[in-house]
Design brief:
Elements: E1 4-5, H1 7-14, H2 18-25, H3 27-32, E2 41-43, E3 46-50, H4 51-65
Antiparallel strand pairs: 1-3, 2-3
Helix pairs in contact: 1-2
């Protein structure tokens, strides 16, 4: 079973603010990050994240920056 994270846990893991994570998951953030969208899991109005997906996103960010 994958580990599901809350927005607080993702913000802490990435050492960014909750506001930043919300921005990345918003429509504007999705458009800005189109080449590498932030992995979000929407369950109704709740936002959750799969830990492995977030870690894979970090690795792709490193590749884009290189």
């Amino acid at each position: 079973m994958p580990e599901i994270l809350t927005i607080d846990e993702v913000a802490s893991l990435l050492r960014v603010s909750k506001k930043t994570v919300y921005e990345w998951t918003s429509q504007r953030g999705i458009e800005r990050l189109q080449h590498n969208p932030f992995p979000v899991l929407r369950i109704g109005s709740t936002i959750r994240f799969v830990r492995e997906d977030v870690l894979a996103w970090i690795n792709r960010q490193k590749e884009v920056a290189a």
